[in-house]
């Protein structure tokens, strides 16, 4: 890791045949930062995240995550990060407690550490009474908060969250972001994709992708000043309209 940068990308590109999913994107993310990766569905956010997580090789460009190269050290990257998919990633036929024990084992934690972390998470989520319930019986909001807690169970340097609040109500979304703040305050870097533009306000910095390219990158305050906008929704609409005009 260089100068506190835990993620670097330089002209990172992914092609599927003639289709360019991510087009020469470049950015850096600092330790402990909440970095928002915004864009409409299909903008290339998930493709970029999969490359950074060591799940998909880039077509060209460079990137490092936690000091490891995405080409040569994808396994090292996977050991250094947490990941929460937009598709629910826990085992629904296991109980809450069994899921934590299972993933603790996958992450290589000792039995004693797993036991302590399980109790800590149950208390933090106020789920002691639900620890022996099957995950599939839980409300969606509880599932999402549990999935996030499991993603950082091993205290990774970086956690990647792919559309983590999709489908949950506004109150649960706010509670989820409070958990993100707490993780960042403990030194975990949070890289989060979302198509909810209001969630940009919760990030330290945001990049906005349009058709595979990063069209804007700065703090929410600076972006609103730059585009003379009252909200991040307005910023995104201006960028989307610009892309349509260019396409014409």
TrEMBL record:
PROSITE patterns: ABC_TRANSPORTER_2. This is ATP-binding cassette domain-containing protein. Residues 7-236 form the ABC transporter domain. Keywords: ATP-binding, Nucleotide-binding. It comes from Limnovirga soli. One of its GO terms (molecular function) is ATP hydrolysis activity. It comes from the Bacteria. Signal peptide: none annotated. SUPFAM superfamilies: P-loop containing nucleoside triphosphate hydrolases (SSF52540). InterPro entries: AAA+_ATPase, ABC_transporter-like_ATP-bd, P-loop_NTPase. It holds the Pfam family ABC_tran. SMART domains: AAA. Coiled coil: none annotated.
